[in-house]
Amino acid sequence: MKRIDKVYQKLNEIWYTSDETRLIQEKGSSASELAELLALSRANVSSELNKLVRDEMVVKIKGYPVRYISVEALEEILHIQWPASRNEIENVDEFIVDNQLKFNHKKNRNPFDLLIGHKASLKKAVSQAKAAVHYPPNGLHMLLLGPTGSGKTFFANKIYQYGIYEQLFDVKAPFISFNCADYYNNPQLLMSQLFGYVKGAFTGADEDHPGLVEQANHGVLLLDEVHRLTPEGQEMLFYFIDNGHFNRMGENGFQREAEVLIVCATTEDPNSNLLGTFQRRIPMTIEIPALIHRSIEERVDLIKFLFENEAKRVKKTFYIDIDVISALVQGVNYGNVGQLKSQIQLVCAQAFLKQLHQGNEIKITLQSLPEEVRNQWHSSSQNIKKSEEISSYVDVTTVIYPNKLQESLEEENSGLNIYEVIEDKVNILEKEGISKKDIHQYIMTDLHLYVRNFVNKSTIDYNLLKFVEPKISELTLRLKNIAEAEMGVTFDNRFLYYIGMHLDAYFHRETKDKLLSPFDIIEIKKENANEYQVACLFKTEIESSLEISFPEIEVIYLTMLLVSIETLDEKKKVSVLVVAHGNSTATSMVQVAKDLLGDVPMTALNMPLEVQPEELFAKLVETIKEMNQGRGVLMLVDMGSLATFEEKLIKATKVPIKTIPNVTTSMVLDVARKTNYMDLDLNGIYHSVTKDFLSAMQLQGLTGGRDKAILAVCTTGQGTAKKLEEMITKVVDSQTDETVRVVTVSSLKMKEDIPDLLEKYQVIASVGTKNPKIDVPYISLENLVDGSGERALRQLLGQYDSNKEVITKDNVIIRDLVQDTLNMYLVYLNPHHITDLLMEWIDDLQIKLGRSFPNSLSLKLVVHTAFAFERVLKQSSLDYDEPLREELVDLLALVGETIAPVEEKLDLNISQDEKTFIAEVLLAD
Question: Is the pTM of this model over 0.85?
C-alpha cells in the first residue's frame, strides 16, 4: 500500500467511529501523532496530509499544532454533505454550531465520479454517455454493450442520475426499466406495454392504461435485452424515435407526444441481432467492459466497494485480510461483477454467522472463503507474488466501516436483507431459551434456505455449491446417477444444487427435527411412490457412504425434493427430432446434448444408408406423433433433401413442423439450450437457429471445400496493389465473418495466373484497373471509389439490402482515402480523430438532407472541412468575396447546425465564410 493511502486509512480509522464531543475536544489528529502511530517521519506524514487536503479528501484545521480529519469521517460524525470548497477551516467549533451550514446540503457529486474505473476502463464509456446526454435538443439515444453482469443496468441508472445532476432532467423525472425478453414473441402485447392501450382495445382491456413510453416522459426508458425484440418490435419504436409521437393501442384520431431518452442494453452483437435501421436510430454505442478486462486496481476497488455494501447492511466494521482480497481477485476467474457480488455476500454471511455474538467487528480471513477458493489459493505457487501486487492497493488488513455516505448498487435496497433475517431469527430463538450452539446450527441452515428461496431454475447461484463439504458433493453425484438410472430421466446441475444444499444443511444440524405429521408422510408415500423408492435407495447409499443412521423423515424430504425438481420441467416444450444418416450419428449428437444440458425433449432417429424413402417417411410420421407435446416439432436433418419431407409430414401428422438442414453437434447443443431455457415457440427457435447457423452452412456447402476469393487486379506498382488489397479486405471484414481471401493479380500476368487461381479458389468477384473477363462480377477501381462499387461488393458478400437507406457509418473506402490524404497534409490536427468526427458529420448531413452522398462528394467535404479547421489554427481562414446566393442560404444554415458539435469537440470555430465554401461544395454536386 502506498504511504499516502496508509496515512489516509489510519486517519479514517481514528476518527470514523467518533462523535461530536470528541471532535470538539481533540479537533482532529496532528501529523506528529499520525507519524508515531505509523512509525513514519513527521515530515513525510505532513507532506502526504497536505496532498490529501489538496485532493479534498482531508480537512485541515488551522491552529497550533495544525490538525487534520478526513472528509469521510466528518460527514459521518456530523451527518452532512461536506462542501468541497471547505478544505481548510479555522476552528471546528464554529462549524459544528453553524446550523445553517450544518444542514446546507450542497449539490451532490457528479454520479459518474462515483463509478469505479471512471478514469480508466470506463473513461470512454463515461465520456460517451455525458456527450449523449448533453446532445441537443434532448440527448442521443444509447446502446450499452457488455456481457451479462458487467453492470449495464447500473450504468444506465448513472446516466439517469447524471441527467438530474446536470439539471437536464427534473429531480422527479422517471427512470423506467423494461426487459424485452418478457415479450419476445408477442408483438401485440409488446406494443400494449410500450405504448399503452385504451378501454376496449382487446379482450380484457377494461380501462385505459398508459404505456412505458408515456410513463417515462421527460425521463429515461431502459430497454434491457433489446436483442430479444423481434424485427416487428424494433419497427414499432421507429416512428416514436423519429418524431416523438405515438398512439395507445386501439386509439384513433388522437396523437400523443413524449420526450424520452432511450437507453438500450444487450449482451449480443448488434450487427447480428438488431436491424440496421434500428441501429441508426440509436447512434451512440457504449461498451461496458467485462470484469476480466478491468485492471487489478479496479477489481480491488470493486471488492472493497462490495464489502462496504455488506458492512453497511450488517452495521458492523469488517477487518479483511489481504489474502482474502488477493484470493478473490486472482483465485477465481469470475465472469462478471454480479457473480463477484454474490460470492462476497455469501462470504460475509458466513463470517457474520460465525461471529454473531462477538461485538461490532467481523474478521474475514481465508477460512471465511469457500473451500474451492481456499484450496486454489494455497496450491498456487504465485500467491506470494500476487499478494505483493495487491499490497500496492491495500494494507495487510483492510478496515471497512459501516454506514458510509456513498453510492451502493441500485438493487441493494430491494428485497430482504439477509443479515436482518438472521438477526430476527436469533432474537426469536434466544427468547425461546435455545442454546447459542443450536441457534448457530439453525441459522446455518437458514442461510442456505434463504438463498434457495430467491432462486429459480434460470437464475440458480451455483457458487453456493462451493460451500458444500466435498464429501457431500461426491455423495450427491452418486445419488444423481442412482436417480437417473431408476427414473429414466437425465438431471442437470439443478439436482446437485437442490439435493446437495439440503443434505449439507441437514448434516449441519445436530437435532434432526420432525416437522411432518404421520398423515402427511403416508400421503407423500402414496402419491409419489416412484420418487419414494428412489429416496429409499438414497438412504441406503447415504448410510453406507457416511456410516450414519439416516432417519425416515429425511427420506420423505428427499422424496419431496425429487418431485419438486421434476416439476421444474413439467412445462411443455417444443420437441426436437435429430435425423441423420448412419447407424449412430443422430444418437451421438443427442447424447452429447443430454449429457451437457440435462433432460431435453429431443429424440434421435438414425438412418442406415440402405433404408428406403418410404420406410423412412413412415418412421418419421410415427416418431413425430409420439414425441409431439403440443408445441410442434423442430427437425434437424443432415441432408437438405430431407427438408423436402416437411410439407408431406405436416399433412400426415397434423403437427406443426420446421426443418433445418446440415445438422451439427454445435447446432444440436444450441437448439437444446434454447428449448430448455429460453421458452421460445417453434418459430422462435427456428428463426434463431437459422440466423446463427444455416446461412454459414449453406455458403460453405457451395464452395466445394475451396476458400472464397476476390481478385484485386492492378496495373501499377506494388504499393498501389497493396493499397487496393487493404481497401477490399476492410470491406470484406466489415461485411461478413466468412473467410474470403483477397488475392492480388498483376494485369500483365493475368493470362498465366488466373487459371490457377480459379482452380484453387472459388472466385466471387474481381476488382481493379482492368477487367480479367472471367465469369464473375467485375468492379472497376473508379466505381469502388465513388461508392457504387463498394455497395455492389457488399451485396455480393451477402446481408445487404439495396432497398434500404444507404447511409452508413462504416464506409470503409472513403474513410481510407480521407485518412491517407489527411495524413500527408495535416500539420496540427490528429488525422484519425478529425476523420472520425467529420465522418459522423457526413452521416448527420445525409440524414438531414434525406439522401446518400457519392463517395466523391464525401471525400471533397471531409478533406475541405478538415483543412478549414487546420486553417483556424494557422489563422489563415479563407474569405468568401461573392454575394451570398439565395440557393446557399438554407444549405449554409444546415452546415452551421451540423458542424457545431464538431466545433465544440475540437474547441475550434470555423468562420462563416469557410462554412459558405462548404455549402458551395454541397450545392455543386
Answer: no
